């Protein structure tokens, strides 16, 4: 008797221990004989992900979703019944023969199904440690044989290991789509998808409107997306029938996610255990310059400029009037039209996000030299670039106007754009010549202008802001002398050689009615011109000012007009180069301390060889 009481006590203890053991070993599978009810969950084998029922925000609706188990109040990463909520907590998740995952409500009606066409002998559902919920044959772990997987039906979140693009088995597109609201996980009007047209690019659309383009894949990443995180590897897979983008974690302990939010922004989050919080380490689009097609064809966007849109160098606004008003949609056109028969050339533009490649073709094996030859052959080929900057091979060819270009602050790419041969310039040979003009040091100038502070800004020219600088200790100039520094905007995509040529050209011009160039500064992306400082600023500030204009008597006015005429005479006839200024206006006439006029701003001036007497210009530029 006593013994049997002991036995019973022992058995009770054993079953108690077993029940503890059982509840603490979470399950990660559902078989055909099991039901997952609201209140219980599946947990992946390593304890990273959890699947269960939840109500979003203040809603009372019930949904089946997956979230990070280790993260308190984790965002929901995937939702099964996005469009059809359960209205009670009596939902049941089941696996049914011959291979369907179904969600049923209390009246045993199927609310949502995996809708699979493949079948299995013993179908089970398993929540994998990658966060992928898979429907598979019980003892077949080969991913290619999965009947269905949540990774093929993304919600608003990308997790490493997902093929983003086209489902290779079904050919069905697998986009990210935002939630409708924080209370409703149904697909909202924003999607992010991989478009394989031309050459694969990721796009974000709001309804039918494209709002962002990530740029073509370049071997490392999408051209317009800044450096990727070192915590995962990424690749683009492409063959004739499918293409997808995929990331894989290197460090599996990193908890991260990329979510397409309801404003159309992809936020890359990483969970920081120390602070127990999510941190955003990247958002795409990055800034306003990523707005699709913002600056029109051949326009380029530089976020540091105001306004941000400019034309690529050697291009001019197609419709100057609307461009000035801030309507950039008409974009830019070549200042010199192409002449394919006469022989066009290709000029390199650097540090950009490559233009829209929807109407592109590519070749994976050609060298950059072969790309040029190939593009030159076809008059409709507008530009080319290296396809894979990782392997340094292949070509991408464009056949239409180049749209959606921006300047990148880092990791931009090179593109070679078709140009009339005359754009090579008559001073091409001089690029190797010694630049006998003082070269200033960037740090000196940056320091002297207090890091280009607004207080030292004199104004904004067509090609960038102008600053006043007092020279401190600098071997090249007098101590205490004031100089003006014109910082060329980074969007003027001029190459260093062209810039130097232009500088040499201006430096050669010496006349007392032309503003004198004292030197320049070229360092990295920065290009600056250093001029003598004109204390009386520009003529327009005086003649269009009620009080100041009275100080200018007729005698002084005649002196100014004569000076301008002498300056022009020199430009047109007497200098070694013949220059047409093309933007002569009161604001480009500067006045020294004695009110002597000096012509400035040769930004769009045009030079001719000394013996050229005729050329056609069929565009109106400047004023
Ligand atoms: C269960 O689902 C069916 C079909 O969708 C629906 O008609 C019914 O109202 C639902 N019942 C409950 C209690 O949600
Ligand atoms: C199931 O898939 C078939 C074909 O793929 C499709 O025609 C059908 O509409 C789908 N049904 C549901 C409920 O999604
Ligand atoms: C493309 O790749 C997929 C996935 O690897 C493969 O299943 C398919 O057969 C390939 N198609 C072609 C045409 O090579
Ligand atoms: C989406 O993300 C952007 C950038 O992080 C943020 O400014 C915006 O408020 C977010 N929108 C919503 C609806 O959360
Ligand atoms: C790519 O270029 C190489 C070399 O010109 C050529 O042999 C090959 O056929 C091209 N490939 C395609 C797909 O056009
Ligand atoms: C920067 O400018 C300050 C005066 O404004 C001067 O004292 C300092 O030496 C300068 N630093 C450099 C590195 O030129
Ligand atoms: C009209 C005018 O502003 N004149 C000024 C030009 O600059 C000199 C020196 O800075 C001043 O003395 C004048 O008043």
UniProtKB/TrEMBL annotation:
Q: What residues does the Apple domain cover?
A: 340-420
GO function term, MF aspect, one: protein serine/threonine kinase activity
Signal peptide start and end residues: 1-26
Source organism superkingdom: Eukaryota
Q: What is its EC number?
A: 2.7.11.1
Listed under catalytic activity are: L-threonyl-[protein] + ATP = O-phospho-L-threonyl-[protein] + ADP + H(+); L-seryl-[protein] + ATP = O-phospho-L-seryl-[protein] + ADP + H(+)
Q: Pfam families, from UniProt?
A: B_lectin, PAN_2, PK_Tyr_Ser-Thr, S_locus_glycop
Where is the Bulb-type lectin domain positioned along the sequence?
27-148
Q: Where is the Protein kinase domain?
A: 452-623
Tell me the keywords, alphabetical order.
ATP-binding, Disulfide bond, Glycoprotein, Kinase, Nucleotide-binding, Serine/threonine-protein kinase, Signal, Transferase
Keyword Transferase: yes or no? Answer: yes
Q: What protein am I looking at?
A: non-specific serine/threonine protein kinase
Annotated source species: Forsythia ovata
């Amino acid at each position: 008797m006593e013994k049997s009481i002991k036995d019973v006590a022992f058995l009770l203890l054993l079953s108690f221990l077993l029940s503890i053991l059982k509840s603490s070993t979470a399950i990660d599978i559902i078989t055909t004989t099991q039901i997952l009810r609201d209140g219980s969950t599946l947990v992946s084998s390593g304890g990273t992900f959890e699947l269960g029922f939840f109500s979003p925000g203040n809603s009372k609706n019930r949904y089946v979703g997956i979230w990070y188990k280790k993260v308190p109040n984790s965002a929901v990463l995937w939702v099964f019944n996005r469009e059809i909520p359960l209205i009670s907590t009596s939902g049941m998740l089941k696996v049914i023969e011959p291979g369907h995952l179904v969600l049923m409500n209390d009246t045993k009606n199927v609310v949502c199904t995996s809708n699979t066409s493949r079948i299995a002998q013993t179908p089970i559902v398993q929540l994998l440690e990658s966060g992928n919920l898979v429907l598979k044959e019980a003892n077949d772990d080969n991913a290619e044989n999965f009947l269905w997987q949540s990774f093929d039906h993304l919600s608003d979140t990308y997790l490493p290991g997902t093929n983003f693009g086209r489902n290779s088995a079904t050919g069905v597109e697998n986009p990210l789509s935002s939630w409708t609201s924080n209370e409703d996980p149904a697909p909202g009007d924003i999607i992010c998808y991989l478009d394989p047209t031309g050459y694969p690019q990721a796009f974000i659309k709001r309804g039918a409107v494209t709002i962002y383009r990530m740029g073509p894949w370049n071997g490392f990443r999408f051209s317009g997306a800044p450096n990727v995180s070192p915590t995962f590897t990424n690749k683009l897979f492409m063959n004739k029938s499918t293409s997808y983008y995929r990331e894989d974690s290197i460090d599996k302990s990193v908890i991260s996610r990329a979510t397409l939010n309801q404003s159309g922004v992809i936020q890359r989050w990483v969970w920081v255990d120390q602070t127990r919080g999510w941190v955003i380490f990247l958002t795409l689009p990055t800034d306003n310059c990523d707005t699709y097609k913002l600056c029109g064809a051949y326009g380029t966007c530089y976020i540091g400029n105001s306004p941000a849109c400019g034309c690529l160098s050697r291009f001019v606004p197609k419709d100057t009037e609307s461009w000035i008003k801030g309507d950039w949609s008409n974009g830019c056109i070549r200042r010199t039209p192409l002449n394919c028969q006469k022989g066009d050339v290709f000029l390199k533009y650097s540090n950009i996000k490559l233009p829209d490649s929807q109407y592109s073709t590519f070749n994976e094996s050609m060298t950059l030299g072969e790309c040029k030859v190939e593009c030159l052959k076809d008059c409709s080929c507008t530009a080319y670039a290296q396809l894979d900057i990782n392997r340094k091979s292949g070509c991408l060819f464009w056949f239409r106007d180049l749209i959606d270009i921006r300047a990148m602050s880092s990791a931009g790419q090179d593109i070679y754009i078709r140009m009339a041969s005359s754009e090579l310039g008559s001073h091409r040979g001089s690029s190797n010549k010694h630049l006998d003009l003082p070269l200033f040091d960037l740090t000196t100038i940056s320091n002297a202008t207090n890091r280009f502070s607004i207080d030292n800004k004199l104004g904004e020219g067509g090609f960038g802001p102008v600053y006043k600088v007092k020279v401190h200790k600098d071997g090249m100039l007098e101590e205490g002398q004031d100089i003006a520094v014109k910082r060329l905007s980074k969007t003027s995509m001029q190459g260093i050689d062209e810039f130097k040529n232009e500088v040499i050209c201006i430096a050669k011009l010496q006349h007392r009615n032309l503003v004198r160039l004292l030197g320049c500064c070229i360092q990295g992306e920065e290009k600056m011109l250093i001029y003598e400082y004109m204390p009386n600023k520009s003529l327009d500030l005086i003649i269009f000012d009620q009080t100041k204009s009275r100080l200018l008597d007729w005698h002084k006015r005649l002196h100014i007009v004569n000076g301008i005429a002498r300056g022009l005479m020199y430009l047109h006839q007497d200098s070694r180069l013949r220059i047409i200024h093309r933007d002569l206006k009161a604001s480009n006439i500067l006045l020294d301390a004695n009110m002597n006029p000096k012509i400035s701003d040769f930004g769009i001036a045009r030079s001719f060889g000394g013996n050229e007497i005729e050329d056609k210009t069929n565009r109106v530029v400047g004023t």
